[in-house]
TrEMBL record:
Matching InterPro entries: NAD(P)-bd_dom_sf, ODC_Mu_crystall, ODC_N, SbnB
Residues passing through the membrane, by range: none
Name recorded for this polypeptide: 2,3-diaminopropionate biosynthesis protein SbnB
The organism's place on the tree of life at top rank: Bacteria
Organism: Eiseniibacteriota bacterium
Length: 337
């Protein structure tokens, strides 16, 4: 019996994902399909909150994924918004992977990168399937220009998307300018501009990404979406229920997204049912549901632990194959009884 524990650092995780973004998207696709076929366990996330720091939280996301993945695990991710003022990232995370035969942990991975990558891969997958299996956008709008936005932008371009224009908006103009100057590959676009407000950005774009830290809806006018864009509503709480109720809504998991006052949850509370949901992304990929451009299309993914363990197991396999893990053969001490 092998009791070795592998530790995989952030540099290794980043190198593997950066060099294989197409494969990462396929891993996420496989995880969604395994979940849709019933080969997963994805319990509710558990939130640790602090009375003296109400804006801070640490979240536990346990999950099991079968159907060829055969891995269980737990992501433990902290969100401390005040870190930004300290000059360090808001989020930090680790991922523990467990064997399914004995339950023993076999890997610990730096997971803020895995978390950002699986979120970006999920959105990239959704953009392709909900956009008519096209990898082209006239104008990409990004609201909230932080880490997740950077990963999503890079995933789109590195998986073959052609984007004519990019428009950026952040509550901090400095962050928008920083994103334009340090993240955007300006030679690949006809124009990259900073929008004066969210409304102008939304009106001008056919592919819109929300990656903010909003806790309540701040976009409330359905008329802004009359041109029927595709919206990747990653941050989940930006849009008023009235906007969702006039749109086609695709989610990752219906039960999971209807909680914690997400925009879909608010729409459910307002209407008393879930009939405004078109289906899941897996439903679209399997041909069970469809969308068209007669109304806005909004993808609202709650974020599932199965994606973390799927991407984490893939990164682990790549790291071990390349000899890039730090292996502790004696981490577990008493292994006989």
């Amino acid at each position: 019996m092998d009791f070795a524990l592998s530790i995989i650092n952030g540099q290794t995780v980043s190198d593997i994902i950066r060099g294989n973004r197409d494969e990462c998207v396929e891993i996420v696709r496989g995880a969604y399909l395994a979940h849709a076929s019933g080969h997963s366990v994805n319990p509710d996330s558990h939130f640790l909150r602090f009375p003296d720091k109400p804006d801070c939280r640490i979240i536990a996301l346990p999950a099991y994924l079968g159907d060829g993945f055969e891995v269980a695990g737990l992501k433990w991710i902290a969100s401390y918004p005040g870190n930004v003022q300290r000059g360090i990232p808001r989020a930090s995370a680790v991922l523990v992977l467990n064997r399914c035969d004995t339950g023993y942990p076999f890997a610990i991975l730096e997971s803020s990168i895995i978390s950002a990558a699986r979120t970006a891969a999920s959105a990239t997958l959704a953009a392709y399937w909900l956009g008519g299996r096209s990898r082209r956008a006239h104008s990409l709008g990004i609201v909230g220009t932080g880490l997740i936005a950077r990963y999503l932008y890079e995933f789109l371009l590195d998986t073959g998307w052609a984007i004519d224009e990019v428009r950026l908006y952040d509550r901090s103009p400095v962050e928008s300018e920083k994103f334009r100057n340090t993240v955007c590959r300006r030679e690949q676009h006809a124009a990259v501009t900073v929008a004066p407000d969210t409304a102008e950005l939304v009106r001008a774009c056919d592919l819109i990404v929300f990656t903010t830290v909003a806790s309540t809806p701040h976009v409330v006018d359905p008329a802004l979406f009359e041109h029927n864009p595709l919206v990747l509503h990653i941050s989940l709480r930006d849009l008023a229920p009235e906007i969702l109720l006039r749109s086609q809504n695709v989610v990752d998991d219906v039960d999971h997204v209807m909680k914690a006052n997400t925009s879909p949850h608010l729409a459910e509370q307002q209407t008393g049912d879930r009939s405004f949901v078109t289906g899941t992304l897996a439903d679209i990929m399997l041909g069970r549901r469809s969308v068209d451009r007669s109304r806005p299309i909004i993808f609202s993914p709650f974020g599932m632990g199965i994606l973390d363990v799927a991407v984490g197991k893939w990164v682990y396999d790549q790291a071990v194959a390349g000899g890039r893990d730090m292996r502790l053969a004696d981490f577990f001490y008493e292994v006989a009884r």
